[in-house]
Write the structure tokens for this entry.
Amino acid sequence: MERKRLVMKKIKTIVAALSAAMVCAGSASCGRTAAKDMASLTLLSDSWESVGNWDPVSRLGGDICSDSLPAVSDIKKGFTVTFRARLAEPTRERRIVEIPDVLEVNLRQHNPLDRDRQNYPSYKMPDGTVPVLEASLRLVSPVDGSVASMPVGIPLAMLDNPFGEHEITLDFSGVRWTMYVDGKLVDNDFPFGYPDTAKILSWNIDPGFVTEAAIGFPASKFRRHSENGGSEPIQYWTPSGHNAWVGDVVSLYHDGTYHLFYLYDRRGHQSKLGRGGHYFEHISTRDFIHWTEHEAAVPIEEQWETFGTGTPFIADGRICISYGYHTTRLYPYERTTLPQMFESLKENGHADTFDPMVLDGVSAGSSYSVSDDGVHFTKSGLLFHPCENPSIYIDPEGHMKMLANYGARGTWEADSVNGQWSCTNEDFPTGGDCTFFFNWGDYDYIIGGFTNLWSKSSSAPDSTYTDVVAAGKDFYNGMCVPTVSQISDGRYLMAGWMWLKAWGGPLVIHELVQMEEGRIGTKWMDELLPEVSDKAVGLSADEVVTLPESSFMLTFDVEPDVLAGGGSLQLQLLPEKSRGMQDGCEWRLDCGEARAQYGGVDSGARREKSLREGGEPQRGRDYAIENLIGTDMPFTVRMVVKYSPKFDGAIVDTEIAGCRTMLSYREKLEPGRICLNATGLKISNIRLFPLAQ
């Protein structure tokens, strides 16, 4: 009788999960073969050219290796240096161009283990060395007069002919500090301060490397070539270059087009002398197969500009995007417009919209840009709130609201973005770096940046939001600062970035599933399935197998033993040759406990923590997820392992029963072997698909 009771209980559990399993039925397809259209991003060209008249004030070459320079009347207009160089393997650091105490261009060997800031070792020579060409500009701070060096550079292994002759251009526009090699933009940064003109007296070249050079004040003007710059897969994408990454992502689906805006990041938040130097880039798609890169929606156009996360929204039929000026990272609070804005808020009880021209100080706080065509955006320049990360949304009743982050807090409401913003709840949201609202059917949700999530019935007041994380039923899966948008056919997408070595990483997009009582899960998006080889490799459980490729998709079916507590499985990813277990990864799944985790293979059976328990899934390393759905009945597991030298490791993206996903970054891991074993359950149909090259 007891056995019969247990069987009936399990049957009821299975039946209760069937609706969720049907929602998650997208896990049936494994991947896309090379014969089908793959989801790829058509890029803008990375080739640039000088336009207009540019008159050098000095030329070097031949027997002339140095020259004096005339006095610079306005350094804010910048300067441009061009030179032709015969690059060679440097046996020691060689300074090949120099303006003493202002600019130095060095050819040197970089430490192949040092990926801080520039990530030069993402491109190594065949012998493992990392020769680089680097230009450093000394800038005097407008705040305290301190001097700091701002480098831009390139690992020579990026070049088709590393030790050949190349045309190099260094351009300081006043707002940008850029290196072009053979007409291609290879690195840039955003200055804060200017060179000391009293020290711009002379310049020189090393004739052993540089054959000719020219310098001119003011800077030349540059424009991008109009042709496309090729295409790349959109899933796990990073911007071109050795040190470029995707930062905070915000999205909007409007008039049949999915718009994705992201904070462009170089150097893991260390651009602009460590202040971030972020701005919003823009990509879009109408079918999620063909993606297009556009010019920046919110570019940096002044030295004091650096932007924080906001949200796109529709106002008066136009696409707008809100953002915060993170000016307090550059100037002291008292030198910005914030004191006056907060004083006005205190006196009037609401936040007014200001033209910064009527205020004293450097613009700070909330602003927005507007587009009539969804492609070209114009900054309003207006300041509507002292918050520096404004999350504006239109609620289901059509009210314009804002969740205030970074520098302010609470929920706010106004008739229009330029209206008077009044606080409706100063105590909620209670936390979160970048909060986002979305509605799905009968439920409202607020994402709290890296770690928070709240939900409520859409018919209930805002005061009834409950903490989803505290219930252990959140959807955090390794993404940072996820954003959610509804697309066509009632589908919802979640996009974010993965934390690799520092702030910023690859773009990741998953699809959401909604289950009973409004719980949200995640699955892979069919349109973004990876391109795989049409020849699958069959694997056997309980043995170490050598992988044909370091990047691959793995799929297998799991049948838990409902009477024996469900059972568990362990999957280990190991380097090709044993270098110690610290470079490996173990993914574990416990069906009986409805729990999965990433950990190290040397950690034994250590129990990692979920977000509710104090774990850090947003870091994308070792963590657990709990309260899985559909793992007490037959289900499928799919896993993509994406190795990249730029990542200095591999991303592991796992989908469980089509209802939950989890991502992990495994530093230094280049998978070469795999082992899958199980206890108390059956594993079948184990197939491995190398990712198409």
